[in-house]
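Q: Got a minute? One more chain.
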Amino acid sequence: MTSGDQLVIDEVSGGAANRIKVLMRRYNALVFRTARGVLRSDGEAEECAQRSWIRAYERLHQYDGTGAFPAWVGRIAFREAIHMLRAAKRDRLVPLPSGSGVSLFDEGDELVPPQEVGMQLAQVREGLEQAINRLPGVLREVFVLSEVQELSAEAVASILGISEGNVRVRLHRARQVMKSTVTARKQAFASAFSFDGARCDRVVTSVLEIVLRMPAAPESETR
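A: Always. Here it is, folded:
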């Protein structure tokens, strides 16, 4: 956790509930992608992100500052996503919108005109997301956090509540499955399950509307 995080946490705990939006802007992508690793629906993952931030606000006094705040809020998101999955009693594949129908991962080595680069990357990203959706849940969770969110094995283990050894084993298995499914450029991973722009704004706005009507968060246990 950065010292900046603790300053914001102190402000929220001190009654400035609207300041939680600073933490949300910093870690929205992590929270969303953690949920998305469990829930194969963008809509459900977005709902989970909203729920997770409300839970984080309610439980902010339980954060003692001894561990990284991103891992703490990531664990909340993971548990909330598991709860949603179990409550729905399903684990279904949610198809993403189809692209142009062009094969996405057999691009060859030919040069691509500059005006087509953006479109090609979008196609690669779409196909990559579909391939990630097909991973078994325990592999998908680790893959999204490790390859998409680019967290360390230690951070992923902290969020998922498993050992670093298990993280590495599951990541290896996920990579083997993905290798046999797609051949995507590394640059596509960072943009998969994007949480910029309108989606991020929606979550921040929705959470603030609820939080600002709630009683002040109890003071954090660390100072």
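A: The two ends are 14 Å apart (CA to CA).
Q: Perfect, thanks.
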